[in-house]
Design brief:
Order of helices and strands: EEEEEEEH
Low-confidence stretches: none
CATH superfamily: predicted glycosyltransferase like domains
CATH topology: Thrombin, subunit H
Strand order of the largest sheet: 2-3-4-7-6-5
Structural class: mainly beta
Distance between the termini: 24 Å
Strand content: over 45%
Number of strands: 7
Helix content: 10-25%
CATH architecture: Beta Barrel
Length: 108
């Protein structure tokens, strides 16, 4: 699949709660992220979802609440993979923490 993003994604391994379903953050940029789940999530392309990103404890970053638009999804047995475009943050602290997380993953 050809890359269509403006900047490369950075690998990440945070936990995510996506509309009350557990998933994992696999990479992210300042504009969006890729989420992987073992279950098909109740989202369709164009839907807006609430994501709670729970960074690894060693980062020292608190959980982050964001709104994001589902841009694409695909089944990659046994997983389901989702690409989200960032829409907004629940608070200025969430935005600061998200940017810190992107910077941490950028160094890996």
């Amino acid at each position: 699949m050809a890359e269509h993003r403006n900047e490369p994604r950075n690998l990440g391994y945070a936990k995510v709660i996506l509309n009350n379903f557990p998933a994992y953050l696999r990479n992210l940029t300042f504009d969006g992220c890729k989420i992987v789940s073992i279950e098909s999530l109740p989202c369709n392309s164009g839907d807006t979802a609430v994501l709670q990103i729970i960074p690894e404890e060693n980062t020292g970053i608190k959980s982050i609440d964001i709104s994001a638009e589902l841009r694409w999804s695909r089944e990659e047995a046994p997983y389901y993979t989702y690409g989200f475009k960032l829409i907004g943050f629940n608070s200025p602290e969430d935005e600061t923490n998200y940017n810190k997380l992107v910077a941490i993953y950028d160094r890996q």
